[in-house]
Amino acid sequence: MPMLEFFTPTFIIAVLVSLSVHEWAHGFVAYKLGDPTAKYEGRLTLNPISHLDPIGTLLFLVVGFGWGKPVPVNPQYFKNHNKDTALVAIAGPLSNFIMAITAFSILMVVGKGSFLFYGGGANASVLTTMLSTLSQDFIRINLILMAFNLLPIAPLDGSKVIRAFIPYKYEREYLEFMARGPQILLILVLASMFLNIPIFSVWIGLIISPILNIFALMAGIG
Fold it and tell me: What is the pTM of this model?
């Protein structure tokens, strides 16, 4: 997809909403598990201004993947440190999956054209076409955001989700890996952007392709 298509109004709306709900979900689940940090810092809100990370948002607009500003979480409030940390982490990607399903349902109700292609047809009303395009953007962006954040490299959510499955004897190695995570992620981002190595596209494709295929079958176009 050409870079200019990332700057359509529907794409920008979908990015802002998807990132905001993703980060809000982290804070909400943490709050329900006893951690009030996000609430005290004003992050239990759907206001995009509170959740936008400058670099993560710019990457989303330029290359199609990115992240929001991480919600502050204090695991000391959790009763089960590893399990609750994993639940808070998975809440973000899960919220994106739910939004993608919701957008797909709306698109099926609109019933104009294929969700794999933009536009609602020559006879579609302006509103119908806008809803169709917005729903398509919501599907793509939320699935990409979900898949990207499930990458098990810190500080992405996947690195915290796997903590629930790390045996205690490997805790030290896990923490060392987490500490090196930001550097590893930066190297991968630079390699993807400047060396054209499809690291993220391959990972994202492996996760979202089966989901898109199911959506296509449900839409009767598979």
Answer: 0.86
